[in-house]
């Protein structure tokens, strides 16, 4: 049962405002939820629904304007300590790497954030393990720079970095939106592998409800800054009458619907 697991993130009626007066915009509106240890949560909604703002609150990049937001029962105060446990993968992998340094050097430098600094040998071993976890032979990236790899390969480099860092929580914001369908499915499988092997909590932010169905333990549907539907994939997607969920379902091409349901994480569990 979820209630038997420790609470990782707890939101109590949080809102986030930007601007003031006539330019005031409330991106997140009176949102409440608990996310539990080792869950795979998907936050799904269209552009401008507030899902990425919510992800940035979880990362500590934004503070709520109103309400209470806690990470493991405490407010987020020290970002360096928070990022030691909570890491992210974003939409554009090339924006996360310096084009003038080798991929290997940047993967190894990423481990400098850890409180307990590993030895050079341990750093290299963990980076090698991270690469092999996403089916990349370490020799394949030796001496290579980010611009020499494709978008899908660079997303795998980001996931290899996560394997090497071994955080307790991963926030993946539209991490599959810049790759083709085949690579997208592989990345989702790697995210599940991260979650299962490292006992990690994963928050997957996406506009694609089909992807959420494929990997999630629970789904939050967002619209206009609010969570309008939430539950297991079966609770959220099967026989729903919630209009914004139905709109997201209608946006899935008909040819893919049966395949997504057939290959979903919940069908594999059953």
How does this structure look, described?
The structure is a single chain. By secondary structure, the protein is α/β, with parallel strands linked by helices. It has a single domain, classed as 3-Layer(aba) Sandwich (Rossmann fold), CATH 3.40.50.300. Helix content is 40%, strand content 23%. It has 12 helices and 9 strands. The chain has helices spanning 51-59, 79-85, 103-109, 120-133, 138-141, 151-165, 181-198, 209-215, 233-237, 243-250, 254-262, 265-269, and strands at residues 7-18, 25-36, 40-44, 66-71, 86-89, 169-173, 201-206, 218-223, 226-231. The strands form 2 sheets. Strands 5-6-7-3-8-9 form a 6-stranded mixed β-sheet, sandwiched between helices. The protein has a 3-stranded antiparallel β-sheet with strand order 2-1-4, with helices on one face. Strand 1 (7-18) and strand 2 form a beta hairpin. Helix 4 (120-133) packs across helix 6 and helix 8 (209-215) runs parallel beside helix 11. The longest helix has 18 residues, at 181-198. The relative contact order is 0.16.
């Amino acid at each position: 049962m979820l209630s038997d697991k420790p609470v990782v993130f707890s939101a109590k009626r949080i809102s986030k405002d930007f601007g003031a007066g006539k330019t005031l915009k409330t991106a997140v509106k009176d949102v409440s939820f608990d996310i539990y240890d080792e869950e795979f949560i998907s936050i799904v909604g269209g552009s401008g629904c507030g899902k990425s703002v919510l992800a940035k609150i979880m990362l500590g990049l934004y503070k709520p304007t109103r309400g209470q937001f806690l990470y493991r029962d405490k407010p987020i105060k020290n970002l360096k300590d928070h990022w030691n446990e909570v890491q992210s993968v974003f939409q554009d992998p090339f924006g996360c790497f310096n084009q003038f340094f080798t991929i290997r050097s940047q993967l190894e430098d990423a481990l400098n954030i850890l409180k307990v600094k590993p030895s050079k040998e341990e750093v290299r071993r963990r980076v090698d393990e991270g690469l092999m976890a996403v089916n990349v032979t370490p020799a394949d990236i030796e001496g290579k720079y980010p611009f020499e790899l494709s978008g899908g390969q660079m997303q795998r480099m980001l996931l290899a970095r996560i394997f090497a860092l071994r955080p307790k929580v991963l926030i993946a914001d539209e991490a599959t939106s810049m790759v083709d369908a085949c690579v997208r499915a592989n990345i989702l499988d790697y995210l599940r592998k991260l979650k299962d092997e490292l006992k990690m909590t994963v928050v997957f932010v996406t506009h694609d409800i089909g992807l959420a169905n494929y990997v999630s333990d629970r789904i939050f549907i967002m619209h206009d800054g609010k969570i309008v539907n939430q539950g297991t994939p079966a609770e959220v997607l099967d026989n729903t009458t919630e209009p914004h969920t139905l709109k997201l379902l209608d946006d899935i091409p008909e040819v893919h619907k049966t395949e997504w349901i057939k290959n979903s994480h919940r069908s594999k569990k059953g």
